[in-house]
Amino acid sequence: MNKTSYLELSIFVLLIVSKLSSIYINISPFIAVIVIGAYFVASEYKLLLMIFIVQFISDLHYGLHISNLSVYISYLIITLMLYKSERMFSLYRSLILGLHANLVFYVVSNFGHFLAYSDVYSRNSLSDAYYQGLIFGVYLLLSTIIFIIVFHTLLAVSRKQLVRSRSTRS
Question: Span 94-105, mean pLDDT?
Fold first, then answer.
């Protein structure tokens, strides 16, 4: 296996662990891995396939619901957005992308929840769906930011150790 395959396999494993190790509603580590993974997986279609496989496994574990379709659509939009943006690896850039990803997830998944579970389709019930999901959206954003910072810190530490170990070999 080459370096790229190991990197993509590592991202896939991180996606699995982040999705299945937390409770159903805490997807912030999953979104953070998607944001970080977009830097390391060359093809958006590969990353999207990984995301959909892991999400499907999660759906089988936690249960299939009609509103899950909006979650898949959210991940599709997020992934395409990540690959259309500038591919400069920095903490600031990752935080901005994490903010965008959370905003897309909030808007699309709440709309899907409204379509799937609303008894009355009106502007008031749509605004109620977004209002009720607001606190979840804020907590999701804050914890995604924390996970992105943790991932960047771990990558910075591992990079420094790699440079240090290579400099001691010569």
Answer: 96
